[in-house]
Design brief:
With 264 residues, the protein is an alpha/beta fold. It is 47% helix and 13% strand. The chain has a seven-stranded parallel β-sheet, with helices on both faces. The longest helix has 29 residues, at 103-131. The protein is globular.
């Protein structure tokens, strides 16, 4: 892709965390931005932090509303006439044991983290194909590459995203469509506080690993570099990134290390 300067970029989950940091960084690069999440008030605040200019649009979106994605995509396109990059950043985590977790919690995790992202991406795909260019940037997680206790539904949904978008890349490379999968480790956001527990209620408290993670500004800058280089995958975080390579070459060792760490 080269320089991201001046591109039109749609960011989901833009009201906080990595999405907010992406908006601030991309806003400084003269990009046209479409900011989406469920929280319109918070999106308006991010827009103001970005300068509140005419090249920033706010479009509330709930990934659970699968049947609205076609309409929302047409609205997004109408703001600037074209979308160059869709950053699928919105999602929700989990902190509960398999034995305790209600099935409808798994359904919610799959709907938000996987089906909502798939529905939105399918809705924008024809636009990318017509333009013979487009870039899906999907934020999964290191948990999309290996597992960890208390995150079974989250891991399952994130693994599914890798399968889907690997095939998206294969099927539509000929149409000028690129795919970058971003796998963050621990980043200092509200992801742990908002994580669903066994009954579907939010955890409402942070965890040590998240508190000790990298800052979202650093994560955003690394993501942008990966987008500009058309990377297939990028791993963002601290020492936990080593788990990718341990899973590949020493899976039993990773299994023992994860259990020993007792990460919540």
């Amino acid at each position: 892709m080269g320089s991201i300067h001046g591109k039109t970029i749609w960011i989901t989950g833009a009201s906080s965390g990595i999405g907010k940091s992406l908006a601030l960084e991309l806003g400084s690069r003269s990009c046209n931005l479409i900011l989406s999440s469920r929280k319109k008030g918070e999106l308006e605040k991010v827009k103001e932090l970005c300068g509140g200019t005419d090249n920033i649009a706010v479009l509330p979106l709930d990934l659970q509303d699968l049947d609205k994605m076609e309409h929302l995509s047409q609205m997004a396109i109408s703001f600037f006439g074209k979308i160059d990059i869709l950053i699928n950043n919105a999602g929700i985590s989990q902190r509960s044991l398999i034995m305790d977790t209600k099935l409808d919690v798994y359904e919610q995790l799959i709907t938000i983290n996987y089906l909502g992202t798939v529905a939105l991406s399918k809705a924008i795909l024809p636009h990318f194909i017509r333009n013979r260019s487009g870039h899906f940037v999907t934020v999964t997680s290191l948990m999309g590459k290996f597992g960890s206790p208390y995150r079974s539904g989250y891991c399952g949904a994130k693994h599914a995203l890798h399968g889907f978008f690997d095939v998206m890349r294969m099927e539509h490379e000929k149409d000028g469509v690129n795919v970058t999968l971003v796998c963050p480790g621990f980043v200092r956001t509200n992801v742990a506080k908002n994580a669903l527990t066994a009954d579907g209620s939010p955890q409402q408290e942070d965890d040590v690993a998240t508190q000790n993670g990298i800052d979202p500004e650093t994560a955003a800058k690394k993501m942008i570099k990966a987008i500009e280089k058309d990377k297939f995958e990028v791993y963002v975080g601290g020492k936990e990134v080593k788990g990718i390579y341990l899973k590949r070459f020493f899976p039993k060792l990773l299994h023992k290390m994860v259990l020993k760490s007792r990460v919540r």
